[in-house]
Specification:
The chain has 4 helices and 19 strands. It is mainly beta. The protein folds into 2 domains: 95 residues, Rossmann fold (3-Layer(aba) Sandwich); 131 residues, Tumour Suppressor Smad4 (Sandwich). The strands form 4 sheets. The protein has a 6-stranded antiparallel β-sheet, with no helix packed on it. The chain has a 6-stranded antiparallel β-sheet with strand order 14-13-12-9-16-17, with no helix packed on it. A hairpin with a 2-residue loop joins strand 10 and strand 11. The relative contact order is 0.17.
Length: 250
Amino acid sequence: MKFSLRVKTGYGEKLREAAKAVIESHGASWTHEIEDDCDFALVFGGDGTVMRDQSAFKCPVLGINPGKSMGYYLRAGPDDMEEKIVRLINGANGRHYHVFSLMRLEAAINGEPVGTLALNDVLVSPIYVRRMLKANIDVCCGKSLERNSGIIVYTPTGSHAFAHSAGAGKMSYDSNMLGVAAFAPFSGILKRKEILLDKGPVKIECLSEEGEVCIDGSEVNIRPIRKGDVVTVRKSESPFRMVSFSRDFD
């Protein structure tokens, strides 16, 4: 068995070293890289560290809290990390641990894929908070002219994060719906409430002179857009596989 070990620099290295010793003592191997032949990935840090690399993982991921993070996607910590790594090495899915498949989103700008999948959300916004985004949205219920501080297209797990702070209701992790909400809505259909869709895609045409697309709130996953650009967001056929130790993810 082989593990990929990913860490938030300056935060999780000590716990990662302890994990290496556990892995080696049970006859398994590890790498610092994201490799296709890995059976599991161990990510040391908070939710942001998980989301930083999640788009590249093909194997199930266990999020490990070094001790100071509040993490929706974290399922182990310093006190129980060794026990849970051993359960992954010697145990079986469905008995000793559980692997959940979580929806991800894929975005494209004018038909060109952004390249990074979204675990939580895709945000289309002006480049400065003080400015207003003007955009047309096109979903199954029709078209609408929107004016707000940003349009969030989010997954069921993402509904517990940024989208919820923007007024969206929380969904169960296994919902098949994706959501669309506005941040500080001024006018348009999103001023009334969020939109929940079981089918996509969601098309957002930028009518402002400039704006940006951000994946999972990461500054390394920002793409600029200009007036006339169309951002298309749909469900990805590649879910994020996450390790937990309870039969119920939530």
